[in-house]
Amino acid sequence: MGHGEKKGTIILDNFNSTANLASNPGFQSTLSLGSKDVINEKEYNPFEHRRVEHPNSTIGSLVHLLKSSLGSGILAMPAAFKNAGLAVGAFGTLIVGFICTHCVYVLVKTSQQVCVEAKKPSMGFAETCGAAFEYGPQRLRPWANFARTFIDYALTCTYLAALCVYVVFIAENFKEVLDEYYPNYKLSVEAYCALTLVPLVLICQIRNLKWLVPFSAIANVFLVICFAITMYYIFHDLPNPAEREMVASVTQWPLFISTVIFAMEGIGVVMPVENEMAKPEQFLGCPGVLNVAMTIVISLYGLVGFFGYIKYGDAVRGSVTLNLPQDELLAQSAKILMALAILFTYSLQFYVPMEMIWRQIQHKIAVKYHNITQISIRTVIVVGSVALAAAFPDLELFINLCGAIFLSSLGLLTPAIVDTVHNWDRGLGTFNWILWKNILISMLSFIALFAGSYVSILSMVDKYNSPPVLEMVGNVTVLST
């Protein structure tokens, strides 16, 4: 007899029609299913059951969310505006930003609601997606484990792709500076990618997140200084906006969408931030941590993109720091600080996929081999990201491709599907507006996924199939592509 049973009471934990009622010797004619305790049972409140050792304040959570969204992606916004034009870029940034914010909102809202049903204090991204299916329509419940596993692997692939982008960021910024000081010994971007290998392998051997905090703090300081210097150059002697294209070709818009999604999306860190809040009820709502953070993010991204494109026009590059003067010390310092900031941030981004990979395989490896296995896996991942970056060193196209394939799926499509599944039996609103809204978001995701990927890959093929060009550097003739 279980701990919760009382004599004369039937516990219906078996809904099979063959349940043996006679096995309960105290069976009485009156069932106690409608007992006062059950009827008056208070609804489970996950916030009351959270036990976070070091909870974040509301302001601290806001800072974390800003930090996750305001990274190197902001420097790619002028290139995004190049693919949309000033007018379309300005309105498009607001629209895509609003949609990204809404997708984060529905994901967190769904997580909080399924926590009540599952009676769990908190859930991560993958757990939330799995629980939405598990407590959703009967026919979709067998897909719960697949949803969890898919999100885990998709997040891992997203962060691994971001690591490749980081390698190109580092290589191109160092190349810009060193080419100025050693014009007769200009190395290719691929060579600079290879030179990042040793420092990245070493820094990625740090396994404790605590020891990565100083690197993250230094990276943030460098990013702020770099951002300030970049804005100084952007606003200095701005040309007339009428000189820039207001509406770019529609065929380029998917590149704009995928770049903005890559720059803005911080979907992977949203759930950890909300789960560790001292007052998680303040994450959503108005004003709320999410709304305040995303208002700041969208404003800054629109500002940098708009004025960065006015300043440099179609000559703008994948990171606007690469457009800064090569021969001025202030601009060179910004590029070096940018490269170092990304170098230090690499190890922090590396922590996420490594944690997932190690969680999947550690129980299959003998404890005495754990150390050498960790070293080997970490080295292989870094070597792989450097090799892939060297194979496709075009920063702008790489960012477009990553945004199109990974972040459009995780940041837009997944929340839309989870929201629909969760509300299918609970009600989709007047005229099924939730369903139609999520269909529109899914369509935008597919446009970014297929059209963005197609245009990015086509541009890569065109670029790398173009004939090499001979250039004179001093008295030396070099071959460039």
TrEMBL record:
A Gene Ontology term for the protein's cellular component: vacuolar membrane
Annotated transmembrane regions: 59-81, 87-108, 150-171, 183-204, 211-235, 255-273, 285-310, 330-354, 375-392, 398-418, 439-461
Major localization class: membrane
Keywords for the protein's UniProt record, in alphabetical order: Membrane, Transmembrane, Transmembrane helix
Claim: Cytoplasm is one of the keywords in the record: no
Pfam family of the protein (one): Aa_trans
Entry keyword Nucleotide-binding: no
InterPro entries found in the cross-reference section: AA_transpt_TM
Top-rank lineage group of the source organism: Eukaryota
The Amino acid transporter transmembrane domain, residue ranges: 56-457
Membrane topology: Multi-pass membrane protein
Protein's name in the database: Proton-coupled amino acid transporter-like protein pathetic
Organism, scientific name: Bicyclus anynana (Squinting bush brown butterfly)
Gene name in the database record: LOC112048643
